[in-house]
């Protein structure tokens, strides 16, 4: 009888320990799933401080300000809300300004900042340049590639750019950054830039 009661007690203890689990198990939290937008933003953040150099691969028209010249991008500023990528052309003159990839309540957003380092909004308006156009990433992207479709601000600012889709791709295996723009489902601009190291300077 005592053996029977002992067996019952041990069985009860076994169930009690199983229910409580180990301290490690009790503290374990299942990681929240991340979206492709989050993963892409994290990959972009990881490039903070890095520089890429290259050139356009489309179009061939050298009247275009960014064609036929070396392009330099520098991932200059990063935080939990945005990543800023400066764009300069050969000679160091500040032309395009920057690409800003930002996490907004509505989703991942690409913003074209034409202010540069010295121009004020008044100077920008006097020059007639566009500033602030861009769009939100669709669901078609991945951790290394995103497609940003022109938003309402862009459509109002530049009506002909309503169908614009900007693509950014991080070719991590080959240290390559690709920027591509199409309009009306036709290529408009494409550039390939490769990771630039101090040894290459």
Q: Brief description of this entry?
A:
The chain has 201 residues and is α+β, with helices and mostly antiparallel strands. It contains five helices and ten strands, in the order αααβββββαββαβββ.
Structural topology:
Blueprint (H helix, E strand, L loop, with lengths): L1 H19 L2 H5 L8 H10 L5 E8 L12 E8 L3 E8 L7 E8 L2 E7 L7 H7 L6 E4 L7 E6 L1 H6 L7 E7 L4 E8 L2 E11 L5
Antiparallel strand pairs: 1-2, 1-10, 2-3, 3-4, 4-5, 5-6, 6-7, 7-8, 8-9, 9-10
Explain the overall architecture.
There is one protein chain. With 201 residues, the protein is an alpha+beta fold. It has a single domain, classed as Lipocalin (Beta Barrel), CATH 2.40.128.20. Helices cover 23% and strands 37% of the residues. The chain is built from 5 helices and 10 strands, in the order αααβββββαββαβββ. It has helices at 2-20, 23-27, 36-45, 121-127, 152-157, and strands spanning 51-58, 71-78, 82-89, 97-104, 107-113, 134-137, 145-150, 165-171, 176-183, 186-196. The protein has a 10-stranded antiparallel barrel with strand order 1-2-3-4-5-6-7-8-9-10. Mean pLDDT is 80; it is low at 1-26. This is HmuY protein.
